Amino acid sequence: MSGESSEVSLLLITANVGTLFEQPDQLLKPWLDQFCQKLSTEQPAFVALHCQEVGGKTFITGMQHVHKFVDVLLTAPELAEYSRIRGFFDEDFATKAEFTALGSVYFVHSRVSDAAMWDFSGCRFHPIADKEVCRIQHDSLRQDTFHKKLKYPPDFFPQFPWSRKGHIVTRWRIQNRVVDMVNVHLFHDASNLESVEQSPSIYVGNRGRALRHTLQKLQDLGLPEAPLFIFGDFNFRIDLHDIVHDFLPSTEARPVKADDETTTAMEYYQAGEDTPALQLEKKRFVLRDCLTQDGLLAQWRKYDKESRSFPQLFEQHISFPPSYPFSEDEGVTQEYMKTRPPSWCDRVLYNAAGKELVQSSTADYFLLGDTAEMGDHKPVCLSVVSHPTSTSQPEKTAPQATTAEHANNNKNNNNSAGGADSAGSTIEPSAKRVNCQSNNHRVHSGSGRAPQACAASGSCHSAIQWRQMLPPLLIYCCTLLVLQYIAGISSGTAAVLIVVLAASVLHLSHRR
């Protein structure tokens, strides 16, 4: 970022909307009402809505309802002040190798004077001035250059070789603030029976591999460093193995066998009781002594461990109940289904630069529609109201994240993160920052490898170095020529002196 940035309010929302398109008559209207009411009441300057499972599990028939969903977002009276909209919906289910069922929609309020999207092909920002939604069908995805979409390789989830998991990346400039937005959908737990066997479960490894892949792809883009917000359905689950051993320490586990001797269920009995305290099946989770939402938040949060494997990503303190799996029954708004252990699947995470922005702002992290029918996933929102900044103030370099910092944040600042990434994949903060007007934003020269995706980004720092070196070189050369003429120094001696002094100037400039 360069120049002065005015105050701007961001509202980032992630929502797995699959059940909206499976039960449109029951869920589509209340969901859209809650969304529109939130924007109408608060009027944030910029809204990012990241959707997963667009079209639902039965997407071949569910996709017919996507047009109604999009039409409401474009024409709702409550959203009239959002004069500029950009959206991307992956509806190309016929191309299974690339289909992700992701949808990203971005709303810009009329009071925002500067709003632009990054063109990944042209490597520059383009101002937006109207409403446009790209319905990704057939070849339309490959023709659009304002986003990057990726579907995870099938070997990332060997237990479920065909899935709709992946990410969509966009880069924005809002009121002179550059931010990256990533819509992500990671792999789910295919079976409770597998999840309970070990800690961490095999599914944790699948998700970790995919998220590291996304972070590496972002690095490979070679873009200048900026606040990164990665939000979507991470499918992070509580540690079911540890839950069973901690909450039911003295129970007897009894497997239920099918005719072919395969285990179809596990039942956990406490001594002297005939009714199981816990019943587990592939897609069934029945805890006899049900916990309230407050109880889940107080007692189960410590079993929400997966984000700790990524110490380079941060998150606001969670003060809301698990976002999944809420009941899909009509009229039921705050009860969980007995299919999976309630978990905080839907999250908004950010890198060190994003943490710096959030901590210098007024932030709120919450569920949307906690008393409304919203489907099996309640949308999770992060509201950030940033304060004006100016280049007249010294800029801080984002600190490298550490496990100790995460532990301290959990204790003192109510930020949840921690642990170490076993693969060592990190988003490194910049070691040095250089002002540059190329592409109207600041180019950061980091400690990692040089950017290569955009020629303008890679050559900017070198151009600045040469402009700094030329004047002293010219002065030294002219001085030596004068000395040669006055003192009679030979041409060979003068050439040697010029080379030595030039090398010294290059060395000093490189150190600066």
Write structural notes for this entry.
With about 500 residues, the protein is α+β, with helices and mostly antiparallel strands. The protein has helices spanning about 20, 25-40, 60, 65-75, 140-145, 190-195, 200-220, 240-245, 295-300, 350-360, 405-415, 455-485, 490-510; strands spanning about 10-15, 45-50, 85-90, 105-110, 115-120, 125, 130-135, 150, 165-175, 175-185, 230-235, 250-255, 265-270, 280, 285, 345-350, 360-365, 380-385, 430-435, 445. Strands 7-3-4-2-1-18-17 form a 7-stranded mixed beta sheet, with no helix packed on it. It is globular. Residues about 390-465 and about 510 have low confidence and may be disordered.
Compact description:
With 512 residues, the chain is of the alpha+beta class. It has helices spanning 18-22, 24-42, 59-62, 66-75, 140-143, 192-195, 202-220, 240-247, 293-300, 352-359, 403-413, 455-487, 491-511; strands at 9-16, 46-52, 84-90, 103-108, 115-119, 124-127, 131-136, 148-151, 166-174, 177-185, 228-233, 252-257, 263-269, 278-281, 284-287, 346-350, 362-367, 380-385, 432-434, 443-445.
